[in-house]
Design brief:
Mog1/PsbP_a/b/a-sand, seven-stranded antiparallel beta sheet, five-stranded antiparallel beta sheet, alpha+beta, PsbP C-terminal domain-containing protein, disordered N terminus, calcium ion binding
Length: 227
């Protein structure tokens, strides 16, 4: 497996594209297998005309107080995640991964990116422990030009909906400043999903709640094709 997938989620920036917003409660746009859906709690609870809901594992994705956007990936990859309406989601135009999406909190350095890449194993446990994966990530960061220091802050693992997830938090200081990273990753059907939130230290405190909420919303439908 090597370092290829580690490089994929810690190196470089995810690309940008155009953003199209729609009316409340409507599918905004479908782009190459991904679509954004805006759902209101009122529509879900009262069945208003034009209701749009997205069922994931038997649960309807809906807002709590204000409308919330849902990114639905290609059906072959079976993932969804939610993000605030004030954020902008884009897909990379030059394809370097099986799937790649970036959501940005406008006016700040806060962003969350998802990349999906094929691997040869069925579970993260076959690759190593969360601590071992964190060591590899930090090792890659140390080798980047301009890196001054790296620091692991936390790492954990948990099982959800039949899949094992690792979560890694770390800081990187380089000649342009310091950033905080939170990565959540899993493997399903021999595809590695890496969902990484990041922000400059100056923006992290004000964006942390949103970053963690977006990261925790990731849902990947378990596949049994390669088990």
């Amino acid at each position: 497996m090597g370092k290829a997938w580690v490089m994929g989620f810690v190196a470089g920036s995810l690309g940008c594209g155009s953003s199209v917003r729609g009316q409340r409660g409507r599918v905004i746009r479908e782009v190459e297998g991904g679509e954004r859906v805006k759902v209101s709690r009122r529509e879900v609870l009262f069945g208003a005309a034009g209701l749009v809901s997205l069922s994931v594992g038997g649960e309807v994705l809906a807002e709590e107080e204000t409308s919330e956007l849902v990114w639905k990936g290609p059906s072959s990859l079976g993932y969804t995640f939610k993000y605030p309406p004030a954020w902008t989601a884009t897909k990379k135009q030059i394809k370097t991964h099986v799937s790649e999406v970036l959501v940005v909190k406008d006016g700040t350095s806060a962003q969350v990116g998802l990349v999906v890449d094929p691997v040869k194993i069925n579970s993260l446990k076959e690759f190593g422990s969360p601590e071992q994966v964190a060591d590899k990530v930090l090792g890659v960061e140390k080798k980047k030009d301009g890196t001054l220091s790296v620091k692991a802050l936390a790492f954990d693992s948990f099982d959800m909906d039949g899949l094992t997830y690792y979560e890694i938090e770390y800081e990187v200081e380089n000649t342009r400043g310091m950033k905080r990273y939170i990565s959540r990753l899993t493997i399903n059907d021999k595809n590695l999903y890496v969902f990484t939130g990041q922000a400059k230290i100056a923006d992290f405190s004000s964006s942390e709640a949103d970053l963690r909420k977006v990261l925790s919303s990731l849902y990947v439908k378990k596949s049994y094709n390669n088990i």
